[in-house]
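Task: sequence in, structure out. Protein: histidine kinase.
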Amino acid sequence: MSELASDKKDRRRSGPLSWRVRAALILLLVLAVSTVWITNVLLTDRSTASTRNRAELRLALYSGNILSELRRNAIVPQLLARDPALIGALNSGDFSQSTQRLISYVDEIGAASLMLLDRDGRTVAATDRNRLGSNHRSEAYYVDALRANTTVFTVQEREAGGYAFTYSRRMESQNSAIGVIMVEVDLAKFERAWAGITDAVAVLDSEGRIILATEPRWRGLTMDEALAKQPAENAIERAIKATADWTALPADAYLRGEAVMRIDGRIPFRGWTMATFTTYASVREKVNAVLALEIMAFALLAASAFYALSRKTALRMALFQRESVELRALNARLQREIAEREKVQKDLASAEQTLEQSSKLAALGEMSAAVSHELNQPLAAMKTYLAGARLLLKRNRPEEAMTAFSRIDDLIERMGAITRQLKSYARKGQANFVPVDMAEALASSLSMMEPQLKARRVRISKILPDQPVMVMGDRMRIEQVLVNLLRNAIDATKSVANPEIEILLASGETATLSVRDNGHGIEDLDALFEPFYTTKQPGDGTGLGLAISSGIVSDLGGRLTARNGTEGGAVFDMQLPILNQSPAAAE
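Result:
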């Protein structure tokens, strides 16, 4: 007893302690997440600003180098256009020393190439000897130079890719044009230099066209077109990296699937602009290094806490071992109870087999009663038609008698169909459904019940729609349900002076056929569709008609309900899924 009391005290002490430990762990987790998040935000902003400042400095340096190169080469055509040796060669037609003279100039100037063109646009001297003899009469730098009195700057796309940047100037002798001197500026060297320093650099002209770029495929495109020119796999990689790297920043643009920072600047030359793209790799490296240290510190703190908890767990293991002994004893008792339950289940299985045999016998009896109930109506109609045919033959009216015999033949076929359809009472889902017109099925059922209706002098009123009401089902089984409803309505109006039956057929979301009589109504609506339930006198009915009818309607996907009318009498509603044959509904 003392040990049990001490165990209870230990449990009471460990309960509040566990809640305090959980609260401490949750607090530690919240503190760690908050610290890492705040550190990430602050360091990311600071590193981003530093990276942006360095990118802006590089942009200013690059634009200054380009501008210096352009200005340095801009004065060369003006000086060479006054060179007496070149002017004399153009006048005399002797260019034997002209090429060597241009070669000596190109090293001092630092230009890409120099060319001397005569008045016909033919290259007569060039630092690149492969160009000698080529004709440039239609080139812009030649045509514009002849028309202008100043140095002309031209940007022209090369056939091999990229752009050529040239200064050209007209050469004159005695106030007449004798040729053109052309200086090609070497700006491609900056592309090669930028490729090893930063991620991407692009220079755009005044029209927004990229003329210099570290990405060769960008040349000739606008900036939007160049940035959109990303292969599909890079877009997937970009999405994966953005998900995996929780420290990623909102990117200005993407380059080769990497998030980059875009810096735009202006070059004070002919409306040129420059854009640089710098990755966030340095930002992420710095931020992730600090975050890794913080996460490591919190991990060590959490490990220390778990170590302390493990010591307390070892003390509780002894208590759990004592409790395991009690659990084994409880397990033994449960096994004995399970054995007793298995014995009871075996007895229950034996009782279920006996009950199943009894159910089979009851089903056989119910099937026999159903066959008797369903065949009574055709037999009664046949008896009436036979009596009428006998009377017609006595009166020498054989043609009318043959009509009665034809109806008897139809009833015999119906009796055969009823015996086949009644099999579905024990085995469902055997019939093939076809489109059925509810108005035609109702007319056939009224024709079958015509003798009973005339004998009782029942007044029938029908309200039918103008359009056919089509359902998908078995017409014989639908007529079987309608005959049962009409038979019940006739029986319900036996004690009424002026029996009336009202039939209403309507179509909407479902096809609804209502049979209303002016009898005394239904007393027990809950048990109405139960097998063998009947309010008729012994011998008048078996109580299976409505049960069979409800099962048939359910098999057809519909519902059969009953209620008492507001003005007396009973109302039976048969609802079946309507068959909509319009193209829109089929679609």
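The chain is about 55% helix and 20% strand.
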